[in-house]
């Protein structure tokens, strides 16, 4: 079994037939340049500070998100409670309005009946009420 080495297949600088005009000069190592650039851009202290700041910021954002979610849930619950109270208030208001209208009708009926059936007593009572109102206004 024959083992082939890449060394034999890859041309070396000595194997190339380059003239002085074709000499590229110092060879530019791309991988080394990229590595050095990354190394400089990701300086360990700067990177750890940035990572720490990012972690703190993320924690604050998560905390505020959780707070907002809790507030939203509380407000939804509160809204349901207030809607229930409002519905009860509307029903109570309608009932009170109905009761007031019924009372007004009864008062009007009694007023007209007393006026016709007992005109003298009605007018005397009315004068007493008006005098009482005038005395209260003067005090």
Q: How would you describe this structure to a colleague?
A:
The chain is mainly alpha-helical and 139 residues long. The protein has a domain of 93 residues. The protein is 79% helix and 0% strand. Helix 3 crosses helix 4. The chain is rod-shaped. The N terminus is likely disordered.
Key traits:
single chain, 139 residues, mainly alpha, disordered N terminus
Main beta-sheet strand count, sense and barrel state:
none
The coarse overall form would be rod-shaped
- Structural class, judged by helices and strands? mainly alpha
Cα-to-Cα separation, first versus last residue: 131 Å
Count the beta strands: 0
> What is the subunit organization of this protein?
single chain
Low-confidence stretches: 1-18
Overall helicity: over 70%
| N-to-C SSE string, H for helix and E for strand | HHHH
Strand content: under 5%
CA gyration radius, whole angstroms: 49 Å
Per-chain topology:
Blueprint: H1 6-9, H2 30-41, H3 44-117, H4 119-138
Helix pairs in contact: 3-4
In short:
With 139 residues, the chain is mainly alpha-helical. It has helices at 6-9, 30-41, 44-117, 119-138. Belongs to the KXD1 family.
């Amino acid at each position: 079994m024959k083992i082939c080495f890449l060394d034999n297949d890859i041309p070396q600088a000595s194997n190339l037939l380059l003239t002085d005009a074709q000499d590229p000069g110092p060879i530019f190592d791309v991988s080394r340049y990229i590595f050095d650039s990354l190394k400089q851009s990701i300086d360990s202290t700067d990177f750890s500070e940035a990572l720490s700041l990012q972690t703190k910021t993320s924690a604050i954002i998560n905390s505020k998100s959780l707070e907002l979610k809790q507030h939203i849930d509380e407000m939804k619950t509160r809204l349901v409670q207030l809607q229930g109270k409002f519905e009860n208030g509307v029903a109570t208001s309608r009932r009170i309005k109905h009761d007031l209208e019924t009372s007004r009708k009864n008062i009007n009926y009694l007023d007209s009946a007393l006026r016709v059936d007992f005109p003298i007593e009605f007018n005397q009572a009315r004068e007493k009420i008006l005098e009482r109102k005038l005395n209260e206004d003067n005090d």
